[in-house]
Amino acid sequence: MNTKKSKLSQEVIAGLTTFFTMSYIVIVNPQVMSSPGTGMSLTGSLTATVLISFLMSFIAGIYIKLPYALAPGMGLNVFIAYSLIIGEKIPWPTALGLIFWSSVLFIVVSIFPIRQKIVEALPNNMKHAMSCGIGLFLAFIGLKNLGLIVSHPATYVALGDINFTIALGILGFGIAFILYHKKKPYAFLMSIVIVTLIAIFTKQIQLPESIFSLPDFKSHFFQLDLIGSLKWSFIPVILAIFITNLFDSLSSIIGLSTSAGFIDKNGNPLQLKQTLLVDSFGSLFSSLFGTAPATVFIESSAGIQAGGKTGISSIVTAFCFLPCLFIAPLITIIPAYATTPVLIFVGILMCQTLKHIHADKMDDIIPIFLTIILMPLTFSITQGVLWGIVSYVIFKVIVGKIKMISPVLWILAIICFLALVTEHSTLIKYLMTFN
Question: How would you describe this protein's topology in the membrane (predicted)?
Answer without folding.
Answer: Multi-pass membrane protein
